[in-house]
Amino acid sequence: MVLTSIINLSYLLGALAFVVGLRRLSSPDTARRGNLLAALGMSIAIIASMIYPFSNADNNYIWIGGGLIAGTLIGLVAARRVQMTDMPQMVSIFNGLGGACAVVLAMIELVQFYGGVAKSTQELVVIVLALLIGAVAFTGSILAYLKLDGKVSDSQVTLPSHSLINNLLLIITLGLSIYLCVTGGSLFIALLLMAIALIYGFSFVAPIGGADMPVVISLLNSFTGLSAAAAGLIYNNNIMLIGGILVGASGTILTVLMCQAMNRSLFNVLIGGFGGNAATSKAQLGEQVAREVVPNDAAIQLFYSQSVMIVPGYGLAVAQAQKITKELDDLLETNGVSVQYAIHPVAGRMPGHMNVLLAEADVPYPKLLDLDDANDALPNTDVVIVVGANDVVNPAALDDPGSPVYGMPVLNVWEAKNVIVLKRSMNPGYAGIENQLFFHPRTKMLFGDAKASIQKLVSEVKGLR
Q1: Using CA atoms, how far apart are residues 34 and 357, in angstroms rounded to an integer?
Q2: Distance separating the N- and C-terminal Cα atoms of the chain
Q3: Which residues does the annotation mark as catalytic?
Q4: Residues 6+ apart with CB under 8 A from 456
Q5: I want to staple 281 with a disulfide (CB 3.0 to 4.6 A). Which of 85, 138, 358, 402 is the partner?
Q6: What are the pLDDT digits (tens) for 288-347?
Q7: Which residue, among 90, 189, 209, has the nearest Cα to 141 in the 3D structure?
């Protein structure tokens, strides 16, 4: 009785740590402490779960301890070695592993069920849900990782009439799930369901274009949470249930917010068609010439400005240019220039990617403007520096109905007095379409690696002091 009370109290403390930690993750100023607090809550939950089986004579602490040690070492090494540019890939893999755990647990329960262990219809429904959601989260996340890491392209995994294929797989998967829950089925049917669900997870993500990957990551994260919650129901484990619900709910809310930021429905995202393939639009018609600027002229323009806005994108992450950007920020601020950052909700390859990068460089959070605040400030901004961003500053979103990004809210950087775009080349962005901003009369291009280009700007600005 006392032991049960201690375990329940530990679960309560762990759940409170999850909730408070998740709340603190909403701001870069408190995100680090929130992450540590949530990790503490998870540690408490793990220890409590280790104590719980003491009443059972068939404990397997060697296996449990071995798994904990192996998982801790893998996670520690991965976290230390991963580059900030590869963070979305690591998040995708961890999402997938969470789904894989749910699949393993569900299959263990199904093997026991077909081996003679009695289970109610409600228990069977929960087991099948854990299997189904976990399988989709697992293979979907693995494909998301492969896409983000450039190991596969959309064209390599997308088939003709892919939406019809997905619909057929979904119908078969749901049909088998219902059959298992109603009749009990057989182990063969359960294995068939697992195989088709794994295939569906892969096929589900296949047609989704690169520009939609932040939405996909948050959606798959919610799937992983739901599968964990289902596993919590299977084992009547309150902390697993609460943690899964928190992850599932936060992932779902974030997915909805991301879709709103792109002015697209979730259904529209899931059927694909945005990103990865070039589209015919007026931005691709005709011969146009972009104007270049040299670092010295750009530095002079920045040095004598009153206000500068920096728009970071994935190119900044690839070049690891966040710290040198902060150095340029400090130099300009010392000269009396007001410097702010415009953060688009889907900039980068995962939600909050740019916020994390800039926080790493110690950029104060109040300097980060969201989409609406940035657009309000842009008309009064002297110079905008676009560092590796592309689709989120594309005017086609407002004036080209033939463009795949049409209707998506973007940063209206062309409304500023001057725009300097730092880019390696004139290649299109992740959505695969031409950006008319590069040819705008207020825009000048500074070609080269983002970090090297900003380093040149820093050197030139120092020379003007």
Answers
A1: 17
A2: 73
A3: 391
A4: 295
A5: 402
A6: 778 999 999 999 999 999 999 999 988 888 888 999 999 999 999 999 999 999 998 888
A7: 90
Run of H or E including 68: helix 61-81
pTM for the model stands at: 0.78
> Contact at 8 Å (CB) between 79 and 125?
no
- Contact in structure between 362 and 424 (CB atoms under 8 Å): no
Q: What is the dihedral of CA 28, 33, 38, 42, to 10 degrees?
A: 140
Question: What DSSP letter does each residue of 321-369 carry, written as one string?
Answer: -HHHHHHHHHHHHHTT-EEEEE--TT-SSSTTHHHHHHHHTT--GGGEE
Taking only the tens place, the pLDDT of each residue in 398-408 is: 887 877 777 78
Structure token digits, residue 372 = 């609406």
Quote the mean pLDDT of the chain: 86
The pair of three-digit structure tokens given for residue 348, joined into one six-digit string? 């980068």
Can you tell me the distance from the alpha carbon of 88 to that of 94, in angstroms, rounded to the nearest whole number? 10
Rounded Cα distance between 370 and 377, Å, is 11
DSSP string, 215-238: HHHHHHHHHHHHHHHHHHHHTT-H
Least confident segment among 232-241, 329-338, 349-358: 349-358
